[in-house]
Design a protein that fits this description.
Blueprint lengths: L2 H26 L23 H12 L2 E6 L2 E6 L2 H10 L6 E2 L10 H4 L8 H14 L2 H6 L1 H20 L5 H17 L3 H4 L11 H33 L8 H6 L14 H32 L1 H15 L14 H13 L9 E2 L4 E3 L2 E3 L4 E4 L46 H15 L3
Parallel strand pairs: 2-7
Antiparallel strand pairs: 1-2, 3-4, 4-7, 5-6
Helix pairs in contact: 8-10, 10-12, 12-14, 12-15, 14-15
This protein binds protoporphyrin IX containing FE.
Length: 435
């Protein structure tokens, strides 16, 4: 027999035996949550079909609110009810405070500088504090409202025409690269499920990521350099205090000398800035697109949204961000949109830092946790869960801090942009667009 074939068969046999041993060992330490049985090696990869968030939601009737899957080598726990999510975030948030790192996010060492992927520790703490305390606080959001006003005006004039005016075309290149990064990130990568296949990069995702992330980092570092020169100039002219924006805060950061880095390196700043663009761009635009789609499908809701806008803003002036607080129906439209179509349906996966007992189940260390789209459609919490009914949020106390509605995640690793992104940006984008 051909030696290659023998080699292949032997490797296959070893993997099958290893699978049985590992599977038996983890189950013997306690009861794992129920779930479809799966295949040797592949585990449940074939059970997920084309739209995993929908398939998993449908599994709830058969297996219950907490499901166990093996995706190649990755142990995965899926939570499908608001009750289980509440138990998870209230009592187990810390045990799942680390992230599961994918193969493409290791490209250019992105994961080492990222705040969203950082291990739960001092680097993450410093950067998260800077975003939530220095960047996305109400005052700074209000101070920069005029920038978003200009952007929306430009969008209304004509995105392409405006984009082509960006001189050397770097803005266009940057956003094209960003769109591609989102795409490579969103692909299921065989290298994540079968680490021994990583080096082959069968889908070419690593190569594509290297090219597009490299380009985006170069452009972002150009922005940062330009900004640094401005800061130096302002400093020389003695006018630096007046113009302290977020980038200046990052550049001027000095650690406490104990558990914090002394300063944030240029490389970390470049990646951090890039990451904020990534985190806030597609999520906000997908929310606006879904809201428009739902309103077009629901003429009654569309009429109510328009009537509210006409009454408050009228035909003579443009809608402003400061109007949003007085547009409760529009805010309800955004909440209802995010309930049905959370832009990140599985959230950003977290990983168990130690063996954990969750709702009577044994969850081994390194299990990745994905939180399903199903929570916003939990029939135990939502009346007619599949219907688009913004009215359910009028006079309701439910907001993004409740475990029934978690498009921004919850707990320690909750979205850092929730203050601005939760209602201001999408509502403003929607209100200002020609619906
Ligand atoms: C509609 C808009 C947005 C949605 C739906 C969204 C959603 C999310 C989700 C689901 C997570 C993971 C939460 C978890 O693990 O529990 C996250 C994390 C994060 N988001 Fe957002 N996001 C949005 C906008 C933004 C914006 C505008 C920014 C900043 C400019 C931002 C910055 C971040 C950061 C830094 C993290 C990592 C937090 C951590 O790991 O501690 N996001 N976001």
């Amino acid at each position: 027999m051909d030696w290659c074939l023998v080699h292949f068969l032997l490797s296959f046999l070893i993997l099958v035996v290893a699978w049985f041993v590992l599977h038996h060992r983890s189950s013997s330490q306690g009861r794992l949550p129920p779930g479809p049985r799966g295949w040797p090696i592949l585990g449940n990869l074939l059970d997920l079909e084309e739209m995993p968030h929908k398939t998993l939601c449908e599994m709830r009737d058969k297996y219950g609110e907490v499901i166990w899957l093996r995706l190649g080598v990755k142990n995965t726990m899926v939570i499908l009810s608001s009750k289980a999510a509440s138990e998870f975030f209230k009592n187990h948030d810390l045990s799942f405070a680390d992230r599961s790192i994918t193969e493409v996010s290791r490209v250019h060492d992105f994961d080492k500088s990222s705040v969203a992927l950082a291990p739960y520790g001092s680097y993450w703490r410093v950067l998260k504090r800077l975003v939530t305390v220095d960047m996305l606080v109400t005052k700074r959001i209000n101070d920069t409202a005029f920038v978003r006003r200009e952007c929306v005006d430009d969008m209304l004039l004509c995105i392409e025409e405006e984009a082509s005016k960006l001189g050397d075309g770097q803005g266009v290149e940057f956003f094209t690269a960003m769109m591609r990064l989102m795409e490579w990130n969103g692909h299921a990568n065989l290298g994540d499920f079968f680490p021994w296949l990583r080096w082959l990069d069968l889908q070419g995702l690593r190569r594509s990521m290297e090219k597009d992330l490299g380009q985006a980092i170069d452009i972002a570092s150009g922005f940062v350099k330009e900004k640094m020169n401005n800061i130096i100039q302002d400093h020389n002219l003695g006018s630096d205090e007046k113009r302290k924006d977020f980038l200046s805060v990052l550049l001027g950061f000095q650690g406490n000398g104990k558990d914090e880095p002394d300063k944030i390196s240029d490389r970390d700043i470049n990646i951090f800035i890039l990451e904020l663009f990534l985190a806030g761009g597609e999520t906000t635009s997908s929310t606006i697109e879904w809201a428009m789609t739902e309103l077009l499908l629901s003429p009654k809701s569309m009429m109510k949204a328009k009537a509210e806008l006409t009454q408050l803003v009228g035909p003579k002036r443009k809608v402003e961000e400061s109007d949003i607080d007085n547009l409760p129906y529009l805010q309800a439209v955004i909440k209802e949109t995010m309930r049905l179509h959370p832009p990140i349906p599985f959230l950003v996966p977290r990983k168990a830092t130690k063996d954990t007992n969750f709702m009577g189940f044994f969850i081994p260390k390194n299990t990745q946790f994905v939180n399903a789209w199903a929570i916003g459609r939990d029939p135990d919490v939502w009346d007619e869960p599949l219907c688009f009914k913004p009215e359910r949020f009028i006079d309701s106390k439910i907001d993004y801090k409740h475990y029934e509605l978690i498009p921004f995640g919850a707990g320690r690793r909750m979205c850092a942009g929730v203050t601005g992104a939760s209602y201001a940006s999408p509502s403003f984008g929607l209100a200002a667009s020609p619906i």
